[in-house]
Amino acid sequence: NAGVTQTPKFQVLKTGQSMTLQCAQDMNHNSMYWYRQDPGMGLRLIYYSASEGTTDKGEVPNGYNVSRLNKREFSLRLESAAPSQTSVYFCASSDVGLNGYTFGSGTRLTVV
Amino acid sequence: QKEVEQNSGPLSVPEGAIASLNCTYSDRGSQSFFWYRQYSGKSPELIMSIYSNGDKEDGRFTAQLNKASQYVSLLIRDSQPSDSATYLCALGGGGSNYKLTFGKGTLLTVNP
Prior knowledge:
The complex is a heterodimer.
Chain A: E1 4-7, E2 10-13, E3 19-25, E4 31-38, E5 42-49, E6 56-57, E7 64-68, E8 74-78, E9 87-94, E10 102-103, E11 107-111
Parallel strand pairs in A: 2-11
Antiparallel strand pairs in A: 1-3, 3-8, 4-5, 4-9, 5-6, 7-8, 9-10, 9-11
Chain B: E1 4-6, E2 11-14, E3 19-25, E4 32-38, E5 45-50, E6 54-58, E7 61-66, E8 71-76, E9 85-94, E10 97-102, E11 106-111
Parallel strand pairs in B: 2-11
Antiparallel strand pairs in B: 1-3, 3-8, 4-5, 4-9, 6-7, 7-8, 9-10, 9-11
């Protein structure tokens, strides 16, 4: 009963490097989300995918891209990492909007 | 833009007491309301959802919703040290709007 699986759990990047955060869910959920969480800022939505084949910007999309690879997988890419992208990133999924989210365990990213 | 306001705390209560956590919101179109618990270094975990005015009880937890006054609260009875965590209020628009907006959270400390 894995739920939402995120990889990697920790990552250190140098400024300008790129990387992809992976997320997969096994609950047959239609919707998936990427959030970042920073001290004092709460959870902020980066991108979301309401259903397979669709993606939309959230509150803080600049510097990120996403791919909904299939119904299970939703990846987040940082093309040129900046120190301001140092954060904890959470992936989440839901079946319909009224039932809340299930979160992955998070990725702690540090950009130096 | 939706706003969700929570007192950042910390809220400190003795073991066995009732902890009361409050959340106010700006969007009258919100239809679904959630409380998440987040232990330090962990991902948010859904503990309560409420959609209609009134109270909803689940074990030691009671969620209260008042749409006219635009607030939602969480009561934790017989508080335990294991309840010490940050509690996040989240709300959703319902229908085809799958996105949740989160408050910044209230840190609860239960003292033995």
